[in-house]
Amino acid sequence: MRRRTSSMVVGLLLIGIVLSVLPTLSFTAPSSYLIRLRSREFVPRPGFPADQRAILRTQAETTTDDRVHVLIQFAHHPSDEVHSQLARDGVTLLAYVPESTWYASIPSVWLRQSTFPAEVQAIVAIQPSDKVSPRLLRHRDQPPLPVLVMTYPDSDLVAVGEAVTHVGGLVEKMVLERSYLLAWLPDAAALTTLAQRDSVFWLDMWPGPFGQKNDGGRQATKTTLAHAAGYHGNPASAPGSIVIGVWDCGWVENNHPGFAGRLTIGDPASTDNGCGGAAGINDHATHVAGTAAGSGAGGPAGRDLRGHADQATVLSYDVDNAAQEVILAIQNYNVDISQNSWGPDPGSCDTTVLGVYDTTAAEFDALVRGSFSETITKTVHVVFANGNEQTYCPDGWRTSSGGAMGKNVIAVGATNSDDKTMTNFSSFGPTEDGRVNPVVVGPGCEAGGEAAIWSTLPGQTYGGSEWCGTSMAAPAVSGILGLMLEAYNLTYNTDPIPSTLRAVLIHTAEDLGNPGPDYRFGYGHVDALTAINVITTTVSSNTSAYIVTAPITNTEIKTYSMNHAGGLLKCTLAWDDVPATLPASQTLVNNLDLALIAPDNTTYSPWVLDKNNPANAATTGLNTVDTVEQVVVADAMAGEWTVRVTGSSVPQGPQTFSLVCPFAETAVTSVSVFVPLISR
């Protein structure tokens, strides 16, 4: 069913980093860098102009405030030495904004002084309009306003809660450890008053309530061949070790024979499903879980309705506080994969929601990177259904939303399992800033036959009638990730970082639609068996023939050599980026660049798409928006090639990357065979 849901939790994700500056000197020459906010893009005037200081004085909350929040632009990304000197000068850098700019907390005495650290190019006041999400502005005349209020990590959230009450608002929920609260505000005037407070960082709509977002599916993805090769998401060397968490608008039926002995309800005390209803068993959740990991037991005679990782351990959660629950799932069950077939549904072509990187996307980006919690740093592979809103906007462009807008997650679109054509509902990209979306596609319906995906349903039964959606495609990919994780564990006796499996999944996808990536099919249709073969192909007992992971710092260049026999050559680079700063208009923080250099020194560049002409085929050039870069040379000459990875702009490094290339073509493979939330 084309229903979908999205996470309700939010977080500041400001990656608080204490840094410091060079000795106090006058300002350097004017900067040419744009500051890219969602509210405006501008080149700041150099120095700390008097009008900027005046704005900051009006935002002071008490006459004794000893710190204020500003934007600081540097001539270059601050070095380690500059970082340490900044800290000694009392400067805290909080969140990065392109280009070379940081949200920062500075001593109030800076409002009165005339000289500043040498590396500081400009200091800019944060205007009230910079703090308000466009989607919130759209609804400001429809009180009461459900507002998410984010503060800086060094601000007093309780005091901001009191300010909400003072303007006639009601605090619904306060999350101190994530520096945000959810509140009801009486009118736009109250919103304006809060935006004028120095301690308020970002104001947005609540990301909810959420809604919900297989015979032929296993054939289309070659999962049946992966099963034949012995991969089921439950390695004999460590049974039960591959754990898939399913977050949905309710729980998976825990007495269904398709999950016998393999299913745990992770949040049994929950009373609210996060989608506007009471907690309980849910048909959508049960269907999704069966697609990912059902065994097919108890299915109708003559039907093989197994899921993709048909022996993996399954956890079931509703989506109330979904991001925080992933941390609990790591602590309590060592979860590996977070499966999400839910997201917001604006009900129309609302570009303040569709295509927008929001708090849900930022939180799940942090979970992928292992930076959501200071104490729990295990990384998690995250999959999101891309949505079923293709009909909302002209030609379907820019119709995805919610967690699928993350940079580090795997957003999945839906094709028909019987012919791999595009469905008439699957949401398309681009994102607001032009990133490739979806990342990949998988089976979410049928063009003919039963026109549905069959899977488990409550009542210890199976069904398929009308069950189509990206909700069905996403768990297919989650199950395949379980198989890939099993293969990686068995081959290298360790876990891969999320960018590695994402890079392999993209690298091995079957290209559909326009050549290269596009905004309908992403990088193509998932191929479970080919992905496993790439993972398990080695040059020695634990050295991959295809995969390299390494850290890179700002301006650093890493090169790798490989001998190529001639013909098609493809390399894929991926990295798990720092979560974006929400007021920024560009989400990419650490920008890496990939290039292939031929034996004759010809340089080949990665694919790029044009968000302003989304139907156009990809071209090649400099990619400054995506956390994936892929270079394809259709008829590469034989000889020694160089693969070059450049840390073009890494303000929050070092950044670890995953690179997939045919480094050793003669390697031997170990595989013998071939905005209500709704479910999506």
Description:
With 680 residues, this protein is an alpha+beta fold. It contains 13 helices and 37 strands. The chain has a 7-stranded parallel beta sheet with strand order 16-17-15-18-20-21-22, sandwiched between helices. The chain has a 5-stranded antiparallel beta sheet with strand order 1-6-7-5-9. The N and C termini lie close together (8 Å). Residues 1-26 and 666-674 have low confidence and may be disordered.
Please tag this protein with its features:
680 residues, five-stranded antiparallel beta sheet, single chain, alpha+beta, globular, seven-stranded parallel beta sheet, 26% strand
- The backbone outline, from C-alpha atoms, is globular
Regions with pLDDT < 50 over 5+ consecutive residues? 1-26, 666-674
- pLDDT averaged residue by residue: 90
Overall strand count:
37
* Binned strand content: 25-35%
Helix content: 10-25%
Major sheet summary line:
7 strands, parallel
Provide the structure class: alpha+beta
- How many whole angstroms does the radius of gyration measure? 25 Å
> So what's the oligomer here?
single chain
Give a short synopsis of this structure.
The protein is of the alpha+beta class and 680 residues long. Helix content is 19%, strand content 26%.
Write the layout of secondary structure elements.
Blueprint: E1 17-18, E2 24-25, E3 35-36, E4 41-42, H1 50-59, E5 67-74, H2 80-88, E6 92-97, E7 101-107, E8 116-117, E9 120-125, H3 134-138, E10 145-151, H4 157-166, E11 170-175, E12 180-185, H5 188-195, E13 200-205, E14 211-212, H6 215-220, H7 223-228, E15 243-248, E16 263-265, H8 283-293, E17 313-318, H9 322-333, E18 337-340, E19 342-344, H10 359-369, E20 381-385, E21 410-416, E22 440-445, E23 455-457, E24 461-463, H11 470-492, H12 498-507, H13 528-536, E25 537-538, E26 547-552, E27 557-564, E28 567-575, E29 591-597, E30 603-604, E31 607-608, E32 619-620, E33 628-636, E34 639-649, E35 655-660, E36 668-669, E37 677-679
Parallel strand pairs: 15-17, 15-18, 16-17, 18-20, 20-21, 21-22
Antiparallel strand pairs: 1-6, 2-8, 3-4, 5-7, 5-9, 6-7, 10-12, 10-13, 11-12, 14-19, 19-37, 23-24, 25-36, 26-35, 27-34, 28-33, 28-35, 29-30, 29-34, 31-32
